[in-house]
Amino acid sequence: MRSRFRSDRGLTTRMGVTVFLLGLLYVGFVAALIVLLKSWVLVVVIAAGLLAAQYWFSDRIALYAMRGRVVEREEYPRLHGVVDRLCAVADMPKPLVAVADMDLPNAFATGRNPDHAVVCVTTGLLRRLEPEELEGVLAHELSHVAHKDVAVITVASFLGVVAGLIVRFAFYSELFGARGRKDQNTLIVFAAVIGVSAAVYAISFLLIRALSRYRELAADRAGALLTGRPSALASALTKLDGEIARIPTRDLRTARAFNAFYFTPTPGLAPGVRPLFATHPTLEQRLDQLGRISAELGEAAAPGKTG
Q1: Of 49, 164, 187, 253, which is most buried by a Cβ count within 10 Å?
Q2: Where does the chain cross the membrane (predicted)?
């Protein structure tokens, strides 16, 4: 079933290209591991098992990692009310509603499809936002679900997760420490596995970051058009950007690993590397887009007011 969120051909194209390129990279990665490790059964079983687990349990994993819990209407009637209204306007299934007990003001959506999705906000966000600002943020998150880019970013990140795990295992295992007890061929194979994994991680990292930046702009655009109040979303973005800057650094370090899922990112990247490594567009880019949408909606509404 199609929702009333405006479709985004640019987002659909980018998701397709990213998944295709990562699929080719994934096939090459698995083939390289089979050749190097000489055990296709082990590689395929582990890779398939991890992919299935990430796809089917991504919402539970994300909620657990970000300390979120599903809440009922009796606990958070205002929050459920906003989600109910937006889902009715968008003509989409209502996702589970969750709250994470943390002061960091943020929100995220996760799940493999619109029928198995979760929208989560933090208590810090609920304390800080006005009702119309909260509506704008939730419309943004629901558009991620409707456009299915939540599922795509989850599956797309799988390859990087596996490659990253292999690299970390290599550095923290005792294999290097036992170098003297191993023959030279084993060490060469092991070094090759690390090299391939590191290269795959770097490529998938850049592809996912590029998709993530565009999908955030697409969600801002879709959410603003659904509510008809781009200024409310712009106000929420500006407020949260300033509030996050006041959060203690130790709390931001924990949250930084989940930037790709959050409504607004935690700071930490130097300006020189931001264009390639950032998960989100800059605040200025997001506000500029919302300003243009606001002008367009104002022009469209003018004839109705005078006529």
Answers
A1: 164
A2: 12-34, 40-57, 150-171, 187-208
Other CB atoms closer than 10 Å to residue 133's CB: what's the count?
22
Cα separation, 278 vs 271, whole angstroms: 10
Gap between the Cα atoms of 73 and 60, Å rounded: 20
Question: Among residues 187, 188, 167, 166, which one has the least CA distance to residue 177?
Answer: 187
- Does 147 show up as a binding residue in the annotation? no
The helix/strand/coil state of 201 is: helix
- pLDDT per 10-residue tile (average), the chain, 307 residues: 72 87 79 73 73 73 82 96 96 94 90 87 94 96 91 72 64 51 66 77 84 93 94 95 74 64 72 71 94 82 41
Query: What is the pLDDT, as a whole number, of residue 251?
Result: 58
3, amino acid identity: S
Check whether 144 is labelled as a binding-site residue. Answer: yes
Q: Is the pTM here over 0.85, yes or no?
A: no
CA distance 133 to 227: 11
Residue with tokens 């969120």: 5
- The Cα 6–Cα 143 span in angstroms is 9
Do 283 and 237 meet the contact criterion of CB atoms below 8 Å apart? yes
**Cα separation of 259 and 253, whole Å?**
10
Catalytic residue (choose from 130, 141, 174, 284): 141
Whether 75 is a known active-site residue: answer no
Rg (CA), the chain: 21
| Token couple for 43 | 């590689």
Amino acid letter, 224: A
- Alpha-carbon span 94 to 154, nearest angstrom: 20
- Helix ranges (DSSP H) in 228-277: 230-244, 249-256, 274-277
